[in-house]
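Dear Dr. L.,

I hope this message finds you well. Following up on our conversation about the binding site, I have prepared a predicted three-dimensional model of the protein together with pyridoxal-5'-phosphate. For your records, I am including the exact sequence and ligand specification that went into the calculation, followed by the structure tokens. Please feel free to forward this to your student if that is useful.
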Amino acid sequence: MSIRLTVDTKAWRRHLSATAATVPGLVPVAKGNGYGFGIDVLASEATRLGADTLAVGRSHEVRTAREAGFQGDIVVLTSWRHFEPRDVDVLTDPGVIVTLGSVDDIKRLTDMCPGARVLLEVETSMRRHGLDPAELRRAVSLLDGLTLLGWTIHLPMTGNASTEASSLAALALDALPGTLWLSHVSPADAGVLAEQFGVDVRLRMGTPLWLHSPALTTDAAVLDVHQVSAGERVGYWQHRVPMAGWVVVVSGGTANGVALSAPSSGASLKRRAITAAEGLLDASGVARSPYTIAGRKRIFVEPPHMQESLVFVPGAACPVAIGDRVPVELRLTTATVDEIDFR
Ligand SMILES: *Cc1c(COP(=O)(O)O)cnc(C)c1O
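The resulting structure of the complex is given below.
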């Protein structure tokens, strides 16, 4: 009675292998909620793929990947910061590679963990982390006590990533030649950069690798159905239903990441019904729920509860019965499923 992710395991692994085959030197990314699977599952799949290196988001995630048996190198993507020196024991794992994005942090890590293996991050138009391009030479001059494995460039999703990658890479490699670790560049563009600069390129990839596969489906259970008449009040917020029909109680709620931009409790159900009928999004957020019943996305009666949601289906006959399963659309990077069924 839960939100379930069903994996056609053979088809999914075919997709993983096919993707890896198009990306020489692929570094699979397994961080956060593990793209809906969990970091442990992805770490095992990375081993199956023969990846020599895995990327995690934060240092504590290294342990999860190790416990899942990943034996290669593990890059921690989030920059190490001297004011958050947690999980220092992780740094003693000789397979760990730390990301550094400031001159100050280079000095501090040298003091704390001489010899640590590091990547230096170059600031991009994302304006998130990294060394200012003007600081790269100075950063290199401070590297005596550390082992530099290359430069890391994390590019935005939109815009001309390959042009930006090329100009930043030129600056970095001019300061010191080394491997380029890139994100959000196409495999073809990565190949062009490798050729252009005569260096190795490692491409990090999460979403396209783990999730861009039709082998994954998510569904929910129908927990209860209630026939209601037009104008009847229902739910926590006692909104009136717009017409005669059914309140269908389905598994999955905020704890599962269902409809993170849920409609506000203030918007009237009638308004939402009209909006949904028109197939539009209303001003308060998403009008339609991610649940499909009898071929259509249905409206929420009200914002999702913690682990269940109430949706409305108009009509005299209820198209689903208690115990049925219905498709639910989830963004797996923000979802927590209750169950994973590897078929
Ligand atoms: C999360 C992350 C990735 C993976 O991004 P996807 O869009 O999931 O492929 C790559 N590089 C860095 C630095 C990241 O933090």
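In brief: The chain has ten helices and 18 strands.

With kind regards,
A. P.
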